[in-house]
Write a structure and sequence with these properties.
Blueprint lengths: L7 H22 L10 E8 L6 E2 L1 H12 L5 E12 L5 E13 L4 E3 L2 E3 L3 E15 L2 E16 L8
Parallel strand pairs: 1-8
Antiparallel strand pairs: 1-2, 3-4, 4-7, 5-6, 7-8
Length: 159
């Protein structure tokens, strides 16, 4: 639908998809991995990047916990653009462009703050399919394409 013909149901779906996108980044940045159960459907499929998709909510939470649990790894996930489309009563799709910044260990203090001199930046595209469940919208399938990687790759743990 175009924004001139946006129905109340479409507007609610757009808002829900944007909220899920924000919650995904928040869960990773603040290491609140249990929050991912409010992002993904129980049978969700996480594809892209790996040779084999990650299937099911427990496996998805385990994957992100393994990558992001290091207490010294600080991250910032932002969504630059979220476009929702193919909105139906119980399904929808979206494409979102995101930037994920991983900061290396703190190496110096200045003016009361701790700073790092190394970072790693991923520029990404997420293609998501959603399903509306009784508890709300959830990602049923997510495919990630990494557009570019800049910086120090030794910041991330090997998974």
């Amino acid at each position: 639908p175009s924004f001139t013909t946006l129905t109340p149901q479409d507007a609610t779906t757009y808002a829900s998809i944007n909220q899920l996108t924000s919650l995904f980044g928040f869960a990773l940045d603040f290491k609140k991995f249990s929050f991912l159960s409010s992002v993904y459907a129980p049978d969700a499929i996480l594809g892209g990047g790996a040779s084999k998709p990650t299937v099911g909510l427990p496996a998805i939470i385990d994957f992100y916990t393994t990558v992001f649990q290091n207490a010294s790894l600080r991250t910032q996930h932002t969504s630059d653009t979220v476009y929702a489309f193919d909105i139906e009563k119980r399904t929808a799709r979206s494409v979102s462009y995101a930037t994920a910044v991983y900061f290396g260990p703190e190496v110096y203090e200045r003016g009361g703050g701790n700073f790092t001199n190394s970072s790693l930046v991923y520029r990404e595209v997420f293609e998501n399919a959603y399903v509306k469940r009784k508890e709300g919208w959830r990602i049923s399938e997510q495919n990630l394409t990494i557009l570019s990687i800049e910086g120090d790759p030794t910041i991330l743990p090997v998974v």
